[in-house]
Amino acid sequence: MSTTIFDKIIAKEIPAEIVYEDELSLAFKDINPQAPVHLLIIPKRRIATINDIEENDRELVGHLYIVAARLAQQFGFAKDGYRVVMNCNEDGGQSVYHIHLHLLAGVTMGWPPFANNRPKQVG
Ligand code: 5GP
């Protein structure tokens, strides 16, 4: 399984603005922020996409959400609100194939999250 830039961030081989770390996960500022606060929360063990999450990853994936909620408290935007997103594959906008939560805050967000694109027939 090939590695990504996130493995280098986990190994501290390239710099990142790390805001949280524990034995299972790492959170750091996105290099190209899409909101006043844009953090990425990643598992230290690589899972490529949501499609690759297995039963025994439940705890790890759940942990990422617990970290997101803790960071929202710590950064002071839990009450105002925020968005947590995990993109999957090309249509989902995934560019790094190591699952990660985007934690976005500091602005009132719109919905839906796509613009000017014609929906495909799916399902
Ligand atoms: P995706 O497009 O896969 O959902 O999100 C990948 C995110 O990783 C993007 O928002 C992108 O800006 C961020 N990113 C890519 N390379 C780096 C990097 O080297 N450092 C940091 N901090 N963020 C990165």
TrEMBL record:
One of its GO terms (molecular function) is catalytic activity. Residues 5-114 form the HIT domain. The active site is at H100. A motif (Histidine triad motif) lies at residues 98-102. It comes from the Bacteria. CDD domains: PKCI_related. Pfam families: HIT. InterPro entries: Histidine_triad_CS, Histidine_triad_HIT, HIT-like, HIT-like_sf. This is Histidine triad nucleotide-binding protein. It comes from Pseudidiomarina andamanensis.
